[in-house]
Design goal:
The chain has 14 helices and 16 strands. Helix 9 crosses helix 10 and helix 9 packs parallel to helix 12. Helix content is 42%, strand content 14%. The radius of gyration is 22 Å and the shape is globular. Strands 3-2-1-4-7-8 form a six-stranded parallel beta sheet, sandwiched between helices. The protein is an alpha/beta fold.
């Protein structure tokens, strides 16, 4: 089939590559530099499977910075554009999604539109009322950054927010592209599918927040946090996933999705969802406090990225901790090899690792690395299990 994808971030590129194994795919992005990289089979994001597939697989995949060229002949058009949380409106900024829908109406109104971007509950129905002549479906994605294509190849489940024939065709396209074949597939109304996405990510954030608060308790009381977590997680009802303490949840999804879900609770009683959002702020406050207790003159931030093997530091918790430390008048320097700039938010970037170690009184590191083994007395981390 002919499929177009709007947006070549984690979600868009992972889907474009998946579908291009068996279908004719066109991908559109407004970033011409990114399009040129992709035309040369270079992935603009760090993802092992995407990099391998682009370089080695026979893919029927073309890239465009012209929306008309990308959309004009497609039977399905996937929207995978960013929907960042707008703190002033207290809601997702869905303008990029709405812009693509308006373009599709002009260019190819017969195509089935599949929204993959994360959106507020009720958004798809609102778009259907605004564009009754278009076929609009929502299908949430559950992809980890750095393993986005892998999670498409081996999906935990497939959810399509529609029950029409087109919805079943789209689900089959996902199944046909996957390596894993016995995939649970659920069809439901779009509003319920939107809720699944936000509640899933908010549960993951809850899990992160829970073990972070356990770790805060252990650290303040002088207890062995690892022993407590291991004892708790041997209960099979609790399990071991998402139990490694961190500086807080960050990245593309969890911060904005938890806030969006809280906003969707307007006029609905709740306590827990707000607590999940607020707990992330409390954790950053605690981490900053523990660093400041060491009375450093210079604090070194080892990597802005929060996960090993990732190049994304959007909304990373470490940035909130940096702000808190700098507010106390303490110098902060940054080691981040993916940065070409000499400064990051008015903090000096020192990408000579040996110089960075020498200059830092405390080195703040979300995830342990053997590169810092020779200065362990300086390192502050809450990484107990050496995993993301």
């Amino acid at each position: 089939m002919k499929i177009a994808v709007a947006g070549t971030g984690y979600v868009g590129l992972a889907n474009a590559v998946l579908f291009a194994v068996n279908n004719e795919v066109t991908a559109f992005d407004i970033d011409e530099k990114r399009i040129e990289m992709l035309k040369n089979k270079i992935s603009p994001i760090k993802d092992k499977e995407i990099e391998t597939y682009l370089a080695e697989k026979e893919l029927n995949l073309r890239f465009f910075s012209d929306a008309h060229e990308a959309y004009k002949d497609s039977e399905f058009i996937l929207i995978a554009t960013p929907t960042n949380y707008d703190t002033e409106k207290n809601y997702f900024d869905t303008s990029t999604v709405e812009s693509v829908i308006a373009q599709v109406k002009q260019i190819n109104p017969k195509a089935v539109i599949v929204i993959k971007s994360t959106i507020p509950v009720g958004f798809t129905e609102r778009m259907r009322k605004e564009y009754p002549e278009l076929k609009i479906i929502f299908s949430p994605e559950f992809l980890r950054e750095g393993r986005a294509l892998y999670d498409n190849l081996y999906p935990s489940r497939i959810i399509v927010g529609d029950t029409s024939e087109e919805a079943h065709v789209f689900a089959k396209l996902l199944i046909d592209g996957a390596v894993k074949k016995d995939v649970k597939t659920l069809f439901m109304q779009p509003t319920e599918a939107e809720a699944v996405k936000l509640f899933s990510n908010t549960y993951l954030a809850l899990r992160v927040a829970y073990f972070n608060e356990l770790d805060t308790y252990a650290e303040v009381r002088g207890l062995d946090s690892r022993s407590i977590i291991e004892g708790v997680c041997e209960d099979p009802r609790i399990g071991k996933g998402y139990n490694n303490p961190s500086f807080g949840y960050g990245g593309y999804c969890l911060p904005k999705d938890t806030k969006q879900l809280r906003a969707n609770y307007d006029q609905v009683p709740e306590n827990l969802i707000s607590a999940i959002v607020e707990s992330n702020t409390t954790r950053k406050d605690h981490i900053a406090s523990m660093i400041l207790q060491r009375k450093p003159k210079t604090v070194g931030i080892y990597r802005l990225t929060m996960k090993a093997g990732s190049d994304n530091f959007r909304s990373s918790a470490i940035q909130g901790i940096m702000k808190r430390i700098k507010a106390k008048g303490i110098e902060v320097i940054v080691y981040e090899p993916t940065l070409n700039e000499t400064e990051f938010f008015h903090s000096r970037v020192v990408n000579d690792l040996e110089e960075f170690k020498k200059l830092s009184d405390v080195i703040v590191c979300n995830r342990k690395t053997d590169l810092l083994d020779d200065c362990q007395d300086k390192v502050y981390t809450r990484d107990l299990f050496c995993e993301n």
